[in-house]
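User: For my dataset I need records formatted as: sequence, then structure tokens, nothing else. Please produce one.
Assistant:
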Amino acid sequence: MATINLTEDNFNETLENNDVVLIDFWAPWCAPCRAFGPIFEKASDKNADVVFGKINTEDQQSLAAAFNIRSIPTLMVFREKVLIFAQPGMLPGPVLDELIGKVRALDMNEVRAKIAEEERKHEAPVAAAAAS
């Protein structure tokens, strides 16, 4: 599957309608971005069940700002609309393949339970402070 260009217009719909979405934040002037592009494309061709999206940070500045992108390329991975991986810098092909395998293997019920537990931990001190 070829990569798709993500914009403000199709970003939310893409996350809503797909189980796994990998996003490459990049810019045309960025040499590491251009080097990572073919690696990302090759992984896209090998993983038809995964959506590979590219966000040009020059054209989509509001999306880049929303995700606090400070360095490019930055790779983000969403599974069932949950951000599970974010890292600046390019990945070699075998590392990207391994990451995709780990993403597929995740137990999302367990991930959501851990997220809920962390949220409860952070809410408890706030609630206690508000009560006093």
